[in-house]
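Re: that chain you flagged

S.,

Sorry for the slow reply, it's been a week of failed gels. I finally had a moment to sit down with the sequence you sent. For the record, here it is as I used it:
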Amino acid sequence: MAERMLKFTVTPRATPEKREAEARAHDFHEIYRDFIDAKAAEQASRCSQCGVPFCQTHCPLHNNIPDWLRMTAEGRLEEAYALSQATNAMPEICGRICPQDRLCEGNCVIEQSGHGTVTIGAVERYLSDKAWEEGWVRPLAAARDRGQSVGIIGAGPAGLAAAERLREQGYAVTVYDRHDRPGGLLVYGIPGFKLEKDVVERRTRRLAEGGVEYVLGFEVGRDATLQQLRERHDAVLIATGVYKARELSVPGAGSEGVVAALDYLIASNRKGLGDTVPEFDDGRLNADGKHVVVIGGGDTAMDCVRTAIRQGATSVTCLYRRDRENMPGSDREVANAIEEGVIFEWLAAPKAVTGEALKAAGLKAARMRLGAPDASGRQSPEEIPGADFDLKADLVIKALGFDPEDLQTALEAHDLDVTRWGTVKADLRNLMTSIPGVFAAGDIVRGASLVVWAIRDGRDAADAIHRYLAAHARADALQPAE
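Prediction finished late last night. Pasting the structure tokens below so you have them in one place:
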């Protein structure tokens, strides 16, 4: 055991300094400052080097966290980065946006013993940013050309993670995406104050420089059918994610001024990237000067309320039907939102959007209480009779979650089996769909989930595709010559 470790009894937990709420609420820059070298080493030295590292077992990628923390504490930073990226295609992104409080840090042994968790995410971000600065991030190196190609539908985290791994194994890889930049929700869905876009762009650029081809502005079903992609490639991976917004089922929900969370976030991110966004410029997807109500309690809702603050909203309220302890989103994000001026109405649910069809003016809401547990074990919210209240609302943002699009219709692939929820059915042993040679990974299989799970699924799918194509190549080689 290195003498530099086990400092958790004498060194208190510390996180990177946050910019003051008053300052950060006026821009879209990331809110956390970087660790300096000494502070990163100090915090890494708090790791207890557990015999059974719960941080690692609760990381979807099973990152070797204790070892790279030890290397960081010892000053072996390049080795630490190499180990961290061995299991993670995007460590600097996960270090920024993973809900560590629910995953690695939330299961840290010293956290459970009352000493405060190791700041794993901050050290991961520090290592990765240091690697880019020092040139330790090596170009993507492809193995010997296998003469086989893979088409990937979707340039989000699952598709990009799969593309990297397949290219390293020697396959020609083409990634198709409907947007005009690769990155998916990393670019268009997550605000810059959590993930600045140059962090994503340098990863996608590395893939392009390593031979991954992007075909952008390309929508499968409109520009080509799934069958046509199958004819172009030896295997196809569906990694489209889930984008269809769940609807708000109350009177007035169709009024102008009631918008989907993803439409709102995409408009904001595009504007930040310098694009022309008519819906933002004419005010439809811009919170400036408005009373904003966001309905929902997940991380997307937190992204929306914090974006509205930065756009200059007059007031921002988050309406959630359960209490804070039962919110699905990160408690860290809730705390950041409160610091920045967001008002939370816990145990409250919408009853109607008031105003006119052409202009929302407010929201009527009901007070709720938690009743008996539902099928999942969570207490079901129930309305308190006679406890309605009103909120001003020029802009109502629906952040109620996402469902899959109708891929059978969109891809013109009616032989593609889907579940009753609309997600793609994939064999859990190899991630192959009902169509031979067509695989699926990420949210389109598991439902709306975390970026880190999408990366894990993309890597698993790449390995499954490799086994499939290698087996077919061997079978072809054994065929007698004609």
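What I noticed first: Residues 451-478 form the longest helix (28 residues).

Talk soon,
D.
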